[in-house]
Amino acid sequence: MADQSIISALVLGLIEGLTEFLPVSSTAHVLLAGHFLGFQSPGNTFAVLIQLGAILAILLVYAGKLLEIAMDIPTSRKARHFVVTVLIAFLPAAVIGALAHDFIKTVLFETPMLICIVLILGGFVLLAVDRMKFQPKYHDIMDYPWPLALKIGFFQCLAMVPGTSRSGATIVGALLMGADKRSAAEFSFFLAMPTMLGAFVLDLYKNRDILSFDDGAVIAIGFVAAFVTAIFVVRSLLDFVSSRGYAFFAYWRIIIGATGLLALVMLG
């Protein structure tokens, strides 16, 4: 395992952890950074598998709430309702992701120009949404009705195009359907758990024959870096979006996308 691969894996892991739960598309950032670093991953598995670190970060931060929900399931209708809504929201991505997996990995993941364009377009969408005056009807994720959860789940499917952002799509979908900013971001965290875990298992299974020991070591480095940085993002994001909204992330997307396009034109 070359030193360059170790450094690249560490850098990409840090990028993954910093961006996974922000509405800026962590996959786009990791793929673009990997492209310009010359980082190669068999079957493009690295960008997907290191997301497990971000999953564990959520589990750690929300361990108390998850344990409380699990213990309340036998006696609390509200707890059972919440678990069902998260699973319903996960269902569209589970079905479409399994069917379109090969196309996503071999076509969309391999098109950096498209990723940059989607980053920019998503930035303008986020700016427009941030300036809208919503009248929220839902403030507690435990009370989200299942039709709302299903609609958010379909919005999440938009993130199968790299550059869209899974968290951004689910948050925007929730806001448009009547959720407030804080609960929209929090529901996105919980929906990430089955979604990212499912993507991890599917991608690992699909590429089990082409991964080597060295690939596993590189992925492990990225995983640890993503885990550590994601903890800090999850702890601070809810307060940030509640008070400041999403304009900062919109401009971030536009700048990164435009910079990527310029670099692709100049450097290839």
UniProtKB/TrEMBL annotation:
Enzyme kind, highest EC tier: hydrolase
Assigned EC number: 3.6.1.27
Keyword Transmembrane helix: yes
UniProt-listed Pfam families: BacA
Keywords: Antibiotic resistance, Cell membrane, Cell shape, Cell wall biogenesis/degradation, Hydrolase, Membrane, Peptidoglycan synthesis, Transmembrane, Transmembrane helix
Subcellular location per the Swiss-Prot or TrEMBL entry: Cell membrane
Segments crossing the lipid bilayer: 43-62, 82-101, 107-129, 187-205, 217-238, 250-267
GO function term, MF aspect, one: undecaprenyl-diphosphatase activity
UniProt topology in membrane: Multi-pass membrane protein
InterPro entries with a match to the protein in the record: UppP
Catalytic activity line of the entry: di-trans,octa-cis-undecaprenyl diphosphate + H2O = di-trans,octa-cis-undecaprenyl phosphate + phosphate + H(+)
PANTHER family, sorted: UNDECAPRENYL-DIPHOSPHATASE
Family: Belongs to the UppP family.
Function: Catalyzes the dephosphorylation of undecaprenyl diphosphate (UPP). Confers resistance to bacitracin.
Further remark: Bacitracin is thought to be involved in the inhibition of peptidoglycan synthesis by sequestering undecaprenyl diphosphate, thereby reducing the pool of lipid carrier available.
Protein name per UniProt: Undecaprenyl-diphosphatase
Native organism taxonomy: Bacteria, Pseudomonadati, Pseudomonadota, Alphaproteobacteria, Hyphomicrobiales
